[in-house]
Amino acid sequence: MKPLALMGLALAAILAAGAGGYWAGVRNLPITGLREWLGVEATFAAAEPAGTGAVIYYQDPDGKPAYSATPRKTADGRAFRAVRASEDVSFEEKQPTTAEATGQPGARRVLYYRNPMGLPDTSPTPKKDSMGMDYIPVYEGEDDGGSVVRVSLGKLQRTGVRSELVKRRTVGRLMRVPGMIQLDERRISVVATRSDAFVNEVANVTTGDRVTKGQVLVRLYSPDIAAAGALFLSDLNIGGRDGAIGGARQRLENLGVPPEAIAEIERTRKVPLSITWRAPRDGVVLERNVVEGMKAAPGDVLFRLADISTIWVLADVPEFDLAAVRIGAPVTVRVRSLPGRSFEGRVSLIYPQVGEATRTARVRIEIANPDGVLLPNMYAEVEIGTGDAAPVVAVPDSAVIDTGTRQVVIIDRGDGRFEPRDVKIGLRGEGLTEIREGIAEGDRVVVAANFLIDAESNLKAALRGLTPPEARP
């Protein structure tokens, strides 16, 4: 007899008994006892399909959101319902139906099933491992022996896989290195004599003073200059030949007599007792080695001057970063004595040697210093812009899987298909990596959770290498 008919007869018997003794015996039964007495629970359990697989957790018998990892009872003594693997909500790809497994029209054909834990074990039919996990189906077209990996959409959503198009971008970064301010060697001058001389007068300038071009520095008497001046004057007075006058003038010039002093002899027709030496350029007095009354020998440096309107910054670049620096690269310089102020310049020279002790190479930057606030030997913080100004094929750093011996990116081919591809990388900077070979502009690469796809690819390759051909159906 059908279960519903049995239940109807039981209820009719209860109603027929009315409020008599039979009902008095059963009216005090709890609901659960009544259901057991009537056999309703067993009937419904027989009507519903039983779950398969291991017990995952236990749920409240009334369907409330109350769960337990171990067997448990409610407050009124009812046992929690065991939820098995087949009854749990899952985002994994469903096991293939019989139609799919048998290859009926319109369905993908399953080639075999592989172990879910990556072991070299396959089966021609659906099965479970020792822990109750279902073997993973391998469909026709997936096991093509290539490098394409298929990932279910549910797994992609849970793992957060993201991809983006490959574009041409400018790859660069700021290289921060220490530096030191130095004088421009081309803007240093000395004041010296080319013959014996006696100092008659010294200007009131000392080391550190600023001088201007043409400013008087020293007056001195030189016997050799006086003799050459007398000869030049004699040739002028007797109206000598041009060649003789030219020879006398040349001798004065060879002795280092300034042109204005020679012009004065020619104009006044007199040889002065002392010759005036002037500053050859604007600048700062670095050295003063002269005092009044002293005798100066040929070649003695009387004054050393330096023009600081343009100075050098010598930066120490590590050897491994040297290839990223190029001539003309923009540079920003900051000094600690001038907080909040920066100076712009460009790389003018990369010195052709590396320090043996420091393993650094010096890079020279020219900086304009019109107000003279940058002084020699100041410490500088240098930021050098590296990279080429032209855009190149580049991807985010997160898209590159670098093992040390090879670099790989994951190509997104759509529909859950991914392909690992070896690439050759170039410059890196500002979160981007230049790709010189392997991919092209317009390809789509995975930029997040790509290591999971790479692991799946390695697992696939390992399975193909470990599983003997005869083990496959």
UniProtKB/TrEMBL annotation:
<keyword id="KW-0813">Transport</keyword>
<dbReference type="GO" id="GO:0022857">
    <property type="term" value="F:transmembrane transporter activity"/>
</dbReference>
<dbReference type="Pfam" id="PF25954">
    <property type="entry name" value="Beta-barrel_RND_2"/>
</dbReference>
<dbReference type="GO" id="GO:0046914">
    <property type="term" value="F:transition metal ion binding"/>
</dbReference>
<dbReference type="InterPro" id="IPR058791">
    <property type="entry name" value="3HB_CusB"/>
</dbReference>
<feature type="domain" description="CusB-like three alpha-helical bundle">
    <location>
        <begin position="240"/>
        <end position="271"/>
    </location>
</feature>
<dbReference type="GO" id="GO:0030288">
    <property type="term" value="C:outer membrane-bounded periplasmic space"/>
</dbReference>
<comment type="similarity">
    <text>Belongs to the membrane fusion protein (MFP) (TC 8.A.1) family.</text>
</comment>
<feature type="domain" description="CzcB-like C-terminal circularly permuted SH3-like">
    <location>
        <begin position="393"/>
        <end position="453"/>
    </location>
</feature>
<dbReference type="Pfam" id="PF25869">
    <property type="entry name" value="3HB_CusB"/>
</dbReference>
<dbReference type="InterPro" id="IPR058792">
    <property type="entry name" value="Beta-barrel_RND_2"/>
</dbReference>
<dbReference type="InterPro" id="IPR058790">
    <property type="entry name" value="BSH_CusB"/>
</dbReference>
<dbReference type="Pfam" id="PF25975">
    <property type="entry name" value="CzcB_C"/>
</dbReference>
<dbReference type="InterPro" id="IPR051909">
    <property type="entry name" value="MFP_Cation_Efflux"/>
</dbReference>
<protein>
    <submittedName>
        <fullName>Secretion protein HlyD</fullName>
    </submittedName>
</protein>
<dbReference type="GO" id="GO:0060003">
    <property type="term" value="P:copper ion export"/>
</dbReference>
<dbReference type="GO" id="GO:0015679">
    <property type="term" value="P:plasma membrane copper ion transport"/>
</dbReference>
<dbReference type="GO" id="GO:0016020">
    <property type="term" value="C:membrane"/>
</dbReference>
<dbReference type="InterPro" id="IPR006143">
    <property type="entry name" value="RND_pump_MFP"/>
</dbReference>
<dbReference type="Pfam" id="PF25919">
    <property type="entry name" value="BSH_CusB"/>
</dbReference>
<feature type="domain" description="CusB-like beta-barrel">
    <location>
        <begin position="310"/>
        <end position="385"/>
    </location>
</feature>
<feature type="domain" description="CusB-like barrel-sandwich hybrid">
    <location>
        <begin position="188"/>
        <end position="306"/>
    </location>
</feature>
<keyword id="KW-0406">Ion transport</keyword>
<dbReference type="InterPro" id="IPR058649">
    <property type="entry name" value="CzcB_C"/>
</dbReference>
<keyword id="KW-0732">Signal</keyword>
<feature type="region of interest" description="Disordered">
    <location>
        <begin position="88"/>
        <end position="107"/>
    </location>
</feature>
